[in-house]
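dude i think i finally got it to work??
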Amino acid sequence: MRRIIVIGIGAGDPEQVTVQAVRALNRVDVFFVLDKGDVKRELVDLRQEILDRYVEGREYRVAVGRDPDRDRASGAYAEAVADWRRRRADVCAGLIAEHLADGETGAFLVWGDPALYDSTLAILDDLRERGALDAEVEVVPGISSVSALAARHGTVLNRVGRPVQITTGRRLAERWPDDADDVVVMLDARDAFAGLGGDVEIFWGAYLGMPDEILISGRLPDVAAQIAEARAEARRRKGWIMDTYLLRRSAPAAD
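look at this
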């Protein structure tokens, strides 16, 4: 029986790789990598650094496929994501069929935690439903960018007895989530925080755990422009950005 392990490798710092993940890395025969091109070559290199650091005395192979582009300009967001995931699944199916032999173990290395805003598990479920995946799947959790953000700012995600909600920049631009005074925002491509009013604090971080990590915090009216400028400059310099932020209403709403 073939096996596939989906391994969370943390937000960007190789030292965030857990002991469980290291043990899993040392059981793998072939690592599957979806290459996003030269712009994000740094992410592929960081995965290789993790393998060089933690895989000991074991030969392994790396199978690389081209990650398909997603139509980010489409007004039909859900349909565009579904199409991208289908094409991504096709690439993964080809890699598995070509490179994973009977009795071998393959692995996908996932930034952060595989259970939080990552498509790998959904893609494997899709392949299984199609009848295109004949392998056992194991998941190794990782330190998410949400946990790394809170740690780097030395804060907590929720206050006593209050909920915290994790959402996307697209959803935040529509409205503040109901019944939540502490909101973590991921996948924000449009500076959704800039349109918020009220007495709100922000704890923002980009490239968390990486050498060029950026951290900014403060009252949103005071630092929103600084964050927007930092995001734009970093994107120009690197060609990509991965950031996460926590928004906190200063006075929690009464129950």
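Strands lie at 2-8, 30-35, 61-66, 105-110, 135-140, 164-168, 182-186, 200-206, 214-219, 243-249.
im so relieved honestly
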